[in-house]
Amino acid sequence: MKGSDVDVDRVSKSFGGVRVLDGVSLQVPAGQVCAIIGPSGSGKSTLLRCINHLERPDGGMIHIGGDLIGYHMRAGRMHEMSEREVARQRARIGMVFQSFNLFPHLTVLDNLLEAPRQILGRSRRDAEERARALLAQVGLAGRAGEWPQNLSGGQQQRVAIARALAMDPEVMLFDEPTSALDPELVGEVLQVMKGLARTGMTMIVVTHEIGFAREVADQLVFMEEGRIVEAGDAREVIASPREARTAEFLASVI
After folding, report:
1. Tens of pLDDT, residues 30-42
2. Is the N or the C terminus of the chain less surrounded, counting Cβ atoms within 10 Å?
């Protein structure tokens, strides 16, 4: 896999007069892993949703692989894309949520086939070959015919990761992918994510798993009140944070 770079430039977002993102800028080079940490309500999930245009930023710009996300630039002005154009861009950006969001009426295999066939127009044969390879990659080769409700939470989240990868994205976004799991199931999902990082996929991961961030992330970002308080090399920030608020937060979660 080959990831693309992500450039977030002064992005702002408000809901009901409350500023959730306040001029956030972030650069993630292609193939790197960026872990985002911070207290609840700090804007982490909203930032991910702006990156794939599930939320429309009030200000600022986001580029992936050099392409402006959600807008056309004409004569120096931004014009919002049609929903079809946005959907085409969004296909390049995989996203895994806290809840697994699998289709309960489809088998594991069919969950992976739906989007590649409907959105990318792939044949059943090609989509199924890719889907079975991805299920093997996440350790679920023998569960293709299962219904999602018959799987553990960790297995369902691994299916959700495989489903996102079935679209051959350039960037993967993870919004606290282990927070809904029982503690004994967290490791199996993190192991899949570690393997994915080794393939060269660009990953932005909102997480409370500091051990994962230390081991896998190239960059660590600490957010609070819609701003980036500190960012830098993951191991350096965890070992010796420069900002007192970062140190205080890390002490509370490690």
Report:
1. 999 999 999 999 9
2. C
Half-sphere exposure of 146 (CA within 13 A, CB side): 15
pLDDT in tens, 95-112: 999 888 899 999 999 999
Structure-derived torsion over alpha carbons of residues 32, 178, 176, 37, reported in degrees to the nearest 10? -70
Q: Is the pTM above the cut of 0.90? A: yes
> Which residues lie across from 221 on neighbouring strands?
36, 231
Residues 6+ apart with CB under 8 A from 41: none
Task: Report the 10 Å Cβ neighbour count for 127.
Answer: 21
108 touches 138 (CB < 8 A) = no
What gap in Å lies between CA 126 and CA 38, rounded to an integer? 41
Return d(Cα 132, Cα 135) in angstroms, integer: 5
Structure tokens, 189: 């999902």
Strands 59-64, 6-15: pairing kind: antiparallel
Residue 134 has pLDDT above 80, yes or no: yes
Residue in the block written with tokens 């350096």: 236
Q: What is the DSSP string of 1-32?
A: -----EEEEEEEEEETTEEEEEEEEEEE-TT-
- What CA–CA distance (Å, rounded) separates 185 from 219? 25
Q: Over the range 13-23, which residues count as b (16 or more CB within 10 Å of their CB) and which as e?
A: beeeeeebbbe
Given a contact cutoff of 8 angstroms between Cβ atoms, the answer to whether 173 and 93 are in contact is yes
